[in-house]
Design brief:
The structure is a single chain. It is rod-shaped, with a radius of gyration of 34 Å. The protein is mainly α. The protein is built from one helix and no strands. The protein is about 95% helix and about 0% strand.
Length: about 80
């Protein structure tokens, strides 16, 4: 059975579209992997930031407590 030029062109176009779809799927998978890695990195950075903020809050609380302790000591000395 003979295949016309139009049929050959349609087959070639279909093959090209399938190849393009496969290539795009590969690119999508690569982008999804990169996104997952970036999200993991972001979570690590957020955890580090949270720890640092906790340290800062603890240091501020320590200073504040020392100030209250000093006020209490001074009040006790005056009494």
């Amino acid at each position: 059975m003979a295949v016309s030029e139009r049929d050959e062109a349609a087959i070639a176009r279909r093959d090209n579209l399938l190849a393009s779809a496969h290539d795009m799927k590969d690119k999508l998978e690569g982008a999804q992997d990169a996104l997952a890695e970036a999200i993991e990195d972001l979570k690590k950075i957020e955890l580090l930031d949270q720890r640092e903020h906790g340290r800062e809050m603890a240091a501020e609380a320590k200073v504040e407590q020392a100030e209250y302790d000093e006020m209490g000591r001074l009040r006790h000395v005056r009494s």
